[in-house]
Amino acid sequence: MRPIVYTITGGAGTQVVSQVCPIDHYVSPANIALNVVVTGSITYTVQYTFDDVFAKNYDPANGNWTNHPTLVTKTVTADSNISYPVRGIRVISPASPSSSGTATLTIIQGGGGGLA
Length: 116
What we know:
Blueprint: E1 4-9, E2 16-17, E3 21-22, E4 32-39, E5 45-49, E6 65-67, E7 78-82, E8 88-93, E9 102-109
Antiparallel strand pairs: 1-9, 2-8, 3-8, 4-7, 4-9, 5-6, 5-8
């Protein structure tokens, strides 16, 4: 998978949510690398879901999201991974009146695939 990059900018008093990055849950092993680069002042959390993000009428706002165990309420640049298949990943920033920076999430999925 080519790197997927989403950037969110902290909103004064409003929660900011990136697009959902769909993950190929058929790739084995999953090997999903996550890196978030912070510029300025922002708090962010990376979340993942097992919901079918391609389902008709799927609404991420009503999805079942789980906070990543180490990329939660972070304010600094950090990286981690997910070693099991999930179906979608996003980054959010909670409503904060003092948030004015950016959080840039880069997602790279390794694993099987390619030419036989």
